[in-house]
Amino acid sequence: MLKGFRLVAVLSVLLLATQAQAAWRTLAPPDAGFSVLYPDTPTAKTESKPRVVTRIWIARTSTLLCLSGVTDYDGHIDAATELQLDMKNFLAAVNGTVKSQEQMNFSNASSGPFPALDFSFNTATGAGRSLVVVAGDRTYQLVVIGVDGHDAKAETARIFSSFKISAPPRHWQGP
Question: Over the stretch 158-169, which tens digit does the pLDDT of each residue have?
Answer without folding.
Answer: 999 999 999 877
